[in-house]
Amino acid sequence: MTEQTAADTAARVEGAAPGGRGTWSVRGRRGRRGLMALALGAVLLGAAACGGNADANAGSQQDGKAGSSKGAATPDGSQATVTVLPGDGATGVDTTGALQVSAAKGKLTKVAVTAKDGTAVDGAISADGLSWTPKGNLRTGTQYSVAATATDSAGKAASRQSTFTTLKPAASAANYGIFNVEQGATYGVGMEVSIRFGKAVTHQADVRHAISVTTTPSVPVEGHWFGSQRIDFRPEQYWAPGTKVTLHLKLDGVKTSKTSYGAQYKDVSFTIGRSQTSVADNTSKTLKIYRDGKLFKTFPATLGDAEHTTYNGKMVIESKEPVVDMDSQSVGLGNAYHIKDVPHGMRLSDSGTYTHGNYWRPLSTFGHVNASHGCVGLHDVKGGGDPSTPAAWFYNHSLIGDVVQVVNSPDKVISPDNGINGWNMAWSQWVEH
């Protein structure tokens, strides 16, 4: 409609001759503007009524009850359609496998899935552009928003937005992983990250994918499953001093079995301290401490006697206890001993191997006679109050994660899962499982 045609139409409505002069007052001009708008609105309404596409398409984007998310062309006439599953407003959605975005008569160009707290879900559009899937699982009890766009062969875009909420498992279905590292702590060069689950993990590949260990400087770190409830992580060689290590637990929403879910979503960062390793020699009856690979200090020691030999192998200090209650019954040795105040204990195995202070043997024992029940003993005083004794010095200068290697013992090499002693497994075996 031209401006003149609009003016003529307005004039006819007012009863004036088309294009007449001298008939337009200020009031008339206001009326003209209003009537022009009315006339233009009538034309636009007529166009919408004839075509029907714009309103029909916009309506089809919103039609459907909660849980429906059908694709539709957008008002610009795109032939592409976008489908999002689960449907808009869905609740109790599974954290794995339920989220799917697809396109028909076009290709996906953009998909954004975001948790309510703003966290983006990592995913990828397929090579053919017809689908998008998340790279991992979703978190439990979380509302997500989906915004997806597809473009047809003519370059016209169709879009879809929806929201849904994932399921919240019952407390009894939670499967927590208890880990052995603490935020901000400093550990020795042999420290392994060990995670032990409260329930059996049958979906081990999924759980392994949800756990990672990153380092600065970067070094490959691999996990190894010991049975169905424990996974440990370590590099091929001991850590370099000063390495920054972060354990990433992205377990929330991961199915650990058909009936259980992981429950943690957190990072734990720690640092590797100075390099200290030690060698306890069953033959020479000594404990030699090395710093950065060089001999630093030597102490006389006593190892396991002929009936209670000490394991060979590399053993990592997994805990430090200033006083230990040692009862032979707890390690299957009957009533052989019960010493309630063993000083300066550092655990080397789950089965009860320690390095510790020994005050009940004469000083002449150390360096001359192997008289322990399988532990590495160093001279100490009752109560552990003398910092000059070998046991006190070793305790005070050791970190959890330091390695104590026993050599020349007639016993076997300790099992890699008896403590955090995976260094006794070849790297080729470690990375197999």
From TrEMBL:
Pathway it works in: Cell wall biogenesis; peptidoglycan biosynthesis; Glycan biosynthesis
Active-site residues from the entry: 356, 375
GO molecular function: acyltransferase activity; peptidoglycan L,D-transpeptidase activity
Transmembrane segments: 35-54
L,D-TPase catalytic domain: residues covered: 276-407
InterPro entries, sorted: Big_10 (IPR041280), LD-transpeptidase (IPR050979), LD_TPept_cat_dom (IPR005490), Transpep_catalytic_dom (IPR038063)
Classification via Pfam families: Big_10 (PF17964), YkuD (PF03734)
Record's keyword annotation contains Cytoplasm: no
Start and end residues of each stretch annotated as Disordered: 1-26, 55-80
Keywords: Acyltransferase, Cell membrane, Cell shape, Cell wall biogenesis/degradation, Lipoprotein, Membrane, Palmitate, Peptidoglycan synthesis, Signal, Transferase, Transmembrane, Transmembrane helix
Keyword field contains S-adenosyl-L-methionine: no
Cellular component GO terms, alphabetical: extracellular region
Name of the molecule in the record: Lipoprotein-anchoring transpeptidase ErfK/SrfK
Organism (species): Actinacidiphila paucisporea
